[in-house]
Structure formats: structure tokens, C-alpha cells
């Protein structure tokens, strides 16, 4: 953890990578700090580590994810979006809807599936209508994730 302030971005990235598997408060605190790193790759990996690998859900964790939701790096934004959705933060729905466009990445689809909010269904269905198979070409994975997100957001009947 002492190396989290090292001059080398490769070393700091290695710290984020290493701490992804540790849930101790000191490890989470270090990852939170790395989520604000100057290097895009370090920030991306730290955001992924906290958002995807850790179940920690504290005000500090959510604040860091919210801070990164509009990061200049699209991977950092995507990982923050996924992390908030994984924590069931429905305040992310407007952000997610605004990003469910034909050029969206798998981040948004994963977040929609994770959140499984019926409020996302109209945007997902519109995206499905806009992006037939030819529009996305060979991206079968993307198409499958869209289908999974649509299925997850369908209203549940008792």
C-alpha cells in the first residue's frame, strides 16, 4: 500500500491490481485513493477493482464511484457506472438512460442488467430497435448483453 504513491504509474497500477482481491479497510482506502490517480489506466483499474471486485458499500465508496462516472476516460466512466448499478443505486438510472445509445459499450448494458430496473426497459427496447444485427456487425457479445439487459429489466409478475 505504501507503493500507491510511487512515481511510476506501472507500480501504482500494480498496487490497484494486487489490492483488487482484498476487502480489508486499509486496502479499500488505498483503492479509493487510486481511483483519483492522474493516470487513466490506474484510475480505470482501481475503479474496476472497487466497483466489480469489492462488495464494500459505504458513503465513501459511492462518492468515489459517483466522482468517476463523468471521468474523461470512457473505461473509468463505465466501471463507475457498473459499480453503482451493482450496489443498486437507482440514482444512476438517468445517467444510464442517457448512455444507452447505438454507440454505447458493454459497460452500460452490464449496468442495466445488474440494476434490472423496469425504468430502463424503454431505452433498451429503443436501442434494440435502432441496432439490428447489421448495425453492430460481428459484435454478437454486445448483442447478447443487450438481450440479457432487456430480459433483466422486464417487469416481474407475481
From TrEMBL:
Q: Which Pfam families match?
A: HEAT_2, HEAT_PBS
Source organism superkingdom: Bacteria
InterPro entries assigned to the protein according to its UniProt record, in alphabetical order: ARM-like, ARM-type_fold, PBS_lyase_HEAT
Q: What is this protein called?
A: HEAT repeat protein
Amino acid at each position: 500500500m505504501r507503493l500507491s504513491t510511487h512515481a511510476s504509474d506501472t507500480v501504482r497500477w500494480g498496487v490497484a491490481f494486487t489490492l483488487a482481491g482484498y476487502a480489508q479497510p486499509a486496502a479499500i482506502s488505498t483503492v479509493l485513493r487510486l481511483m483519483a490517480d492522474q493516470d487513466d489506466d490506474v484510475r480505470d483499474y482501481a475503479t474496476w477493482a472497487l466497483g466489480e471486485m469489492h462488495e464494500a458499500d459505504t458513503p465513501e465508496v459511492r462518492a468515489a464511484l459517483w466522482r468517476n462516472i463523468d471521468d474523461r476516460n470512457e473505461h473509468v466512466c463505465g466501471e463507475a457506472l457498473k459499480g453503482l448499478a451493482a450496489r443498486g443505486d437507482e440514482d444512476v438510472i438517468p445517467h444510464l438512460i442517457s448512455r444507452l445509445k447505438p454507440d454505447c459499450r458493454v459497460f452500460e448494458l452490464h449496468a442495466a442488467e445488474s440494476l434490472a430496473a423496469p425504468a430502463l426497459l424503454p431505452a433498451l427496447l429503443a436501442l434494440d430497435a435502432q441496432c439490428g444485427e447489421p448495425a453492430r456487425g460481428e459484435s454478437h457479445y454486445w448483442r447478447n448483453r443487450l438481450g440479457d439487459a432487456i430480459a433483466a429489466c422486464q417487469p416481474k409478475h407475481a
